[in-house]
Automatic annotation (TrEMBL), chains A, B:
GO BP: iron-sulfur cluster assembly
Name assigned to this protein: FeS cluster assembly protein SufB
Domain SUF system FeS cluster assembly SufBD core stretches: 84-304
Gene this chain is encoded by: sufB
SUPFAM superfamilies to which the protein is assigned, alphabetical: Stabilizer of iron transporter SufD (SSF101960)
Pfam families noted in UniProt: SUFBD_core
Alphabetized PANTHER family for the sequence: FES CLUSTER ASSEMBLY PROTEIN SUF, UPF0051 PROTEIN MJ0034
């Protein structure tokens, strides 16, 4: 079903064992090539546009859904709309890995538009991993638009990870948190060469006692460019915290623009950002233990993006 | 020369003793009403537009220039262009206080456009205090555009203070720092009622080893609105640090948007922001010492904006 290149990509963007043991939908070059559902998790094709509806029954505990996308055709643009309905009181994991392999010269692009509703008291862990490989000159592009609504007492954990190889990416994430809903976002982005990455995260703390925490870390090497926009609005008694750290190397450029807006006297919003290079004392220490400068650098970056 | 109301305003926005003992230009309702120069500091009227050129000779040490603006006429709009040339190796203080008194119903507005050049090795302390009084319903508006160029080894200390009473303000500050130039900005803004305040600060760290530090604190009460935009660009080996804290009360709204951009791998940029209400434990402590809640609140706000 999958050729060896596709298998390798899948292994990078997802855990293959977990994937095939539960509900999943594997999309390769625009077509579903493997699908499995469970008693509690249904996957249905959309009728009006490409994509699927994933419906998770209330009180589904400990299950996962994997919806990886693989693209190995060059000169191909994939566009998909996925909708996830996470039922009341569930506790589930959704893994959306996206991998491109392109050794040619013509662009491969994946645009994913995702809608989530995390219903009352549900807990969703959402993992998104982006990776591209191939020696060619071709552009490997990922764009995502992700809209998430977290109902009362819901919890959303997001991991947004760009591993490497992506020529250009634009991620747009919008989250609304209702009463006592909680959000934790972990973002990791690595760019090198002439790559460009943009991440916009909009968080609306709508409900009383909602909380949000964003921890974003990135490494920008060579001539690559990164742009971060974080927008957090406190519209009720709430707490929000954004922390973003970037390591910059070579001729790279990083811009970080967080925006905090408080519309309620009981909104507590905090932001911290830092852009800088690798600490030289850390480099020295590892080099004194026998590592070359390059090895020391790689060790530090790995630890930073962990 | 000054009536009693004007004297009172002057006393709020400047130190009258210091003012009249050195170089100064007092502008009242659009006209210069008192001027004094010194051996080292010249003040010349602009020929093409309203305003003055202040020329400070090289190596002028320990002197000050006061250029207060007082407006007591209602339905009056004052526009002034001032240019300051701070000579090489000087160490001087410039105080630009602006005060409006309006008991009527029609708007009084002051727009000040300031240009500074801080020449090689000079040290400038620039103090800007805004205040408005009067019981009327009239709008009391201040807008400023301040452009500052700090040459090699120059030091610029800025104090931007909005005391109270200003219906609407928009401050736009642009600073370019050259080799080994240093900047420290202290900003304090207080708004209440339906007042609105906007502050845009753009800092370009152009030169090697330039540094910038911004400490902004604000209090927003009642229905007032505050908007802060901080934009710091590191274009060379440099260090920059922005810290902004806001206390929000009642139905006030505060938006804080810092933007860090690093265009050099030796640029180190840091930002911290927090929006929240007065810490309740601080209130409790002061109230347990016998203060009413209102007194305790005022004491804390005073300390915060000090």
């Amino acid at each position: 079903m999958l050729n060896s290149v596709e298998e390798k990509i899948l292994d990078t963007i997802d855990n293959v064992k977990d994937l095939f043991s539960g509900a999943h939908n594997v999309r390769s070059n625009g077509k579903a090539i493997s699908r499995s559902i469970s008693k509690n998790i249904d996957i249905i094709n959309k009728e009006d546009k490409p994509g699927i509806n994933v419906v998770i029954k209330p009180n589904t505990i400990g299950e996962s859904v994997h919806v990886p996308v693989i693209l190995s055709d060059e000169n191909f643009k994939d566009l998909v709309y996925n909708t996830f309905d996470v039922g009341e009181g569930s506790d589930v994991v959704v893994v959306a890995g996206c991998g491109i392999h392109n050794c040619g010269t013509k662009t491969t692009q994946h645009d994913g538009i995702h809608d989530f509703i995390v219903r009352k008291g549900a807990h969703l862990k959402y993992v998104e991993k982006h990776y591209a490989g191939g020696d060619g000159e071709a552009q490997k592009i990922f764009n995502t638009k992700t809209i998430l609504e977290v109902e009362e007492d819901g919890v959303l954990e997001m991991e947004l990870i760009q591993i490497k190889g992506v020529t250009s990416t634009k991620k747009d994430t919008e989250i609304r948190l209702h009463k006592n809903a909680h959000l934790i976002i972990t973002e990791r982005i690595f760019t090198e060469l002439d790559q460009e990455a943009q991440s916009h995260i909009n968080i609306e703390l709508v409900g009383e006692d909602s909380t949000a925490q964003v921890i974003s870390r990135s490494v920008s090497k060579d001539n690559s460019k990164q742009l971060f926009y974080f927008n957090m609005k406190g519209e009720n008694k709430c707490r929000g915290h954004i922390e973003c750290d970037s390591i910059i190397m070579g001729n790279a450029q990083v811009t970080s623009v967080p925006s905090l807006s408080a519309y309620n006297e009981d909104a507590e919003l905090i932001h911290e950002a830092a852009i800088g290079k690798i600490a030289s004392d850390q480099l020295m220490k590892l080099m004194s233990l026998g590592l070359t400068e390059k090895e020391a650098e790689e060790t530090i970056l790995k630890g930073f993006l962990k």
